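Minutes, project huddle
Topic: does the predicted pose make sense with NDP bound?
PN asked that the exact inputs be recorded in the minutes so nobody has to dig through chat later. Recorded below.
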Amino acid sequence: MSYTEAVLEQVRKANPEQPEFCQAVQEFLDSLAPVLDRRPEYRKAKILERMVEPERVVMFRVPWIDDLGEYQINRGFRIQFNSVLGPYKGGLRFHPTVNLSILKFLGFEQTYKNALTTLSMGGAKGGSDFDPKGKSDAEVMKFCQSLMTELRRHIGQDTDIPAGDIGVGLREIGYLFGQYRRLENEFSGVMTGKSVNWGGSLIRPEATGYGAVYFAAEMLGHHGRTLEGKTCVISGSGNVAQFTAKKAIELGAKPVTFSDSNGYIHDPEGITSEKLRYVMELKNIRRGRIEEFVERYPGATYHPDERPWSVPCQAAFPSATENEIQVADAERLVANGVEVIAEGANMPTTPEAVDVLQSAGVLFGPGKAANAGGVATSGLEMSQNSMRLSWTADEVDSRLRQIMRQIHEATSRAAEEYGFAGNYVVGANIAGFVKVADAMLDQGLV
Ligand code: NDP
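Predicted holo structure (tokens), as shared on screen:
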């Protein structure tokens, strides 16, 4: 049995009820054989065995009172996975599906994604099974205050700096930060994704979506092609999906879909800037459902309980959630002529579906690389907070573009060096792994 197989077996045995975490570890380990053969010191130092155990898992009760005066109890989590490269950094997710498995997979991935950004950040993830959907602002505030009352013991601007993720946007970050500031009597850069009025960075809300589009443009550019004129299928209609659409439109591409957990809309005429403004107002302010799009734009169609992958396109941006592209979806995408896929979401494509896409020659940018623009810009927000100044939108955007270019180069180079030219999955995993593993060797057995 190889070293990676032995570690994977141990991970499965130790975490039998954590399928998403085991999937993320398997996807990662599957890429590492060539580097482990070349660098036996990693095995001797039990680097993989250490990497698959989080440094710390915090799980706690979050009690709050709803608008009817009923007591409510949720679970809160923070998984502090690896801080060898810097303070823990990673988002908070509020969604009913949140559990230890999902957050461990996200914290594990975050470690190697953060390594790729070249900024000094460790990996973490956290959140709660709280569902903000259908809750009043007052309920969301009371929940956030209760969660932060415990979470504040475990975070700090030099220790762990949370940000947003699914269900955690500007409103939630505001309530969380406000409670931290009150309890600690300290105004610090303890969270990113803040409003620009009080310490947030310009372009942070845009960064994950913009970065995914930049990464797709880099992959295409490497092959002498561009995004211009390409039909794009986008899933989700939240933060990442919206700004993916915005940048795609700016680069002359044509987004035609959005989705949410109830279904997707298809607008064959293309989602224009005006239609995108409507979606932003619908999802961010009215907190409505994507199906309302077709009432406003009758040229579009709504497809309940379906994902958008059967819509013909040349570029696809999964930007909703994990495992949303399965083998049958990948086969449809290939049959319809998809050329490039950049994962805005984390692990949205199953490993078997990735195989289908790569075997068909589709340029495939994995989330670890393609959606790293979000956390990279969080890193830029931390720098601005430390220096107590704000960069212009153009400056942040050009740094983001530069970082995405560097990530593309680093992943391409690592893939080539180990005999997998053009395989961005292997490239991202190896480049992230080597950086973290070498730092772990340097810092000894801790
Ligand atoms: P949002 O909460 O803003 O939007 C999430 C979108 O995905 C919504 O349209 C939501 O629909 C949909 N969605 C969520 N869960 C499911 C599900 N189980 N099935 C189908 N649709 C679902 O989150 P973000 O846009 O911030 O995050 C989207 C993805 O991007 C996640 O995988 C996240 O981890 C990843 N990501 C986000 C970053 C960021 O900076 N925000 C950084 C890097 C990665 P509905 O409205 O019905 O819930």
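Observations noted during the meeting:
- The domain at 54-186 is CATH 3.40.50.10860 (Rossmann fold).
- The pocket of NDP is lined by residues 164-167, 169, 208, 236-241, 260-261, 319-321, 344-346, 371, 374 (CB under 6 Å).
No decisions taken; revisit at the next huddle.
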